[in-house]
Design a protein that fits this description.
Layout (H helix, E strand, L loop, with lengths): L1 H11 L10 H10 L1 H20 L8 H15 L3 H6 L9 H28 L11 E4 L4 H7 L4 E4 L4 E4 L3 H26 L1 E8 L5 E3 L4 E8 L5 E7 L2 E8 L5 E3 L2 E17 L19 E5 L6 E6 L4 E9 L5 E8 L5 E7 L4 E4 L2 E17 L3 H20 L4 E5 L6 E4 L7 H4 L6
Helix pairs in contact: 3-6, 6-8, 8-9
Length: about 425
């Protein structure tokens, strides 16, 4: 008997309900949801904050990177190699940062497409929702309330009035997403065509080569205030020219010239007793010249050169640069290693040794940063569009208000939980 009842139970039992999950719809909800968008933004914000706290390695300048690496070893000690391996000294170019930026781009594309799809059907009247975010019984005629909705488009049907902000509210949201996406695209493409040279040393009349871009920087004049008159050449053709100074960069042809510092230099001229040029060399392999330009900075305060014909070895050290540069000049005989002179001079003086004369003229050189960012206008356009979209979205939030007529007055229904419907009923200025 029990087996028979069991069979009857199985026959009478309703068939099992099979719930089929739409994978694409689930993925779309995740892509357009707030969780993915917030996770990408918070992740990027965390990495940018970490990059501001942890010193980042310079790029494009081997000498600057070598100095930075030496300072990093002093600061972080034994953990420097581990931090370098983890990519913490180059966070903005790390795989994690790029993955989060790509995730943010995916979320922006999905949300933009979702807004476009929502806009297509937003202009058609739809009945009030069964579970509205806010309701309010006004006690006033529907037509009276509709006249107060000055910043809404009101559509009338037989059973209700629908007030919405189509299309401005949707366009504002789309502009915010589109502008942010344009900024991301601009920053991504910048890695393909943008470059930066830090700490390029330039002196008047001496070409400075920028190998990464096949450009030549030629400074025609550097004054004591740090103002640099320059020309930027590509081959024989002039790309840009102008004046740059500390705090006043020159931005021309998508190239920015930033003067970091103006540092002292000496031009040394050698003569024999009859006024003939004395050949000078900075090293045994260096080219001999009657003039040498000695450039000084905090990392290289000492310079050395020789005069083979006069058998002189000369050392020049920068003692101070402010308020006026002073130098210590030590001259030795290269044959006997005896000291011939050891004097402190200022630019404009000369020293005589063994019947030869060394004159020291004042010069200046500037340390500049050269940045070429042809894609920066794309980022600027995206920023303007995004800010405009956010601003208009704040003024015209996406909101729908239904006014349902009734015997005791109209009933207001809204899908915006933050909007106070009583402001419309009371006749106060609505947002």
């Amino acid at each position: 008997m029990s087996g028979a009842f069991s069979c009857l139970h199985m026959i009478d039992a309703p068939p099992p309900v099979i719930i089929r999950r739409n994978t694409w719809q689930s993925a779309w909800r995740i892509a357009t949801g707030n969780a993915l968008f917030a996770a990408a933004l918070l992740g990027l914000a965390f990495l940018l904050g970490a990059a501001a706290l942890i010193p980042q390695a310079p790029r494009g300048d081997p000498a600057a990177y070598a100095r930075w690496l030496s300072e990093a070893h002093v600061r972080f000690g034994a953990v420097t190699n581990a931090l370098t391996t983890l990519g913490l000294f180059d966070l903005v170019h790390s795989i994690v940062f790029r993955a989060l930026a790509a995730l943010l781009g995916l979320a922006l594309i999905a949300r933009l497409a979702d807004r476009i799809a929502a806009m297509r059907g937003a202009s058609h009247p739809v009945p009030p929702p069964d579970s509205p975010a806010r309701t309010f019984d006004s006690g006033e005629p529907a037509e009276e309330i509709a006249r107060r909705m000055r910043r809404y488009r009101v559509r009338s049907t037989e059973s209700y009035l629908l007030a919405h902000r189509f299309p401005l509210a949707y366009i504002a949201a789309m502009a915010a997403y589109a502008g942010s996406l344009i900024m991301l695209i601009g920053m991504a493409t910048a890695s393909l065509g943008d470059w930066r040279i830090d700490g390029l040393s330039v002196t008047p009349g001496v070409p400075a080569w920028i190998d990464d871009a096949a450009l030549t920087f030629l400074a025609s004049e550097i004054d004591s205030g740090g103002e640099v008159k320059f020309r930027l050449l590509e081959g024989e053709s002039e790309v840009a020219q102008g004046i740059a100074a500390p705090g006043k960069p020159a931005i021309q042809s998508a190239a920015g010239i930033y003067v970091r510092d103006v540092l002292p230099a000496l031009r040394v001229i050698g003569e024999d007793g009859e006024g003939r040029a004395l050949q000078l060399q900075t090293s045994a392999q260096g080219e001999a010249s009657s003039e040498l330009l000695l450039i000084f900075d905090a990392n290289q305060p000492d310079k050395f050169f020789v005069a083979p014909a006069a058998k002189l070895a000369v050392g020049v050290s920068l003692l101070e640069s402010d308020p006026a540069p002073r130098y210590r000049v030590s001259i030795l005989s290269s044959s006997s290693a005896e000291s011939i002179a050891d004097e402190t001079i200022v630019p404009g003086q000369f020293i005589e040794a063994n019947g030869y004369r060394l004159a020291f003229a004042d010069e200046s050189h500037a340390a500049i940063d050269v940045v070429r960012a042809p894609f920066q206008f794309v980022v600027a356009i995206g920023f303007v569009v995004a800010v405009a979209g956010v601003g208009f979205a704040a003024l015209y939030p996406a909101r729908r208000i239904w006014t349902v007529p009734g015997e005791g007055g109209a009933r207001l229904v809204s899908d915006d939980a933050e909007f106070d419907l009583s402001t419309l009923a009371a006749g106060r200025s609505e947002r």
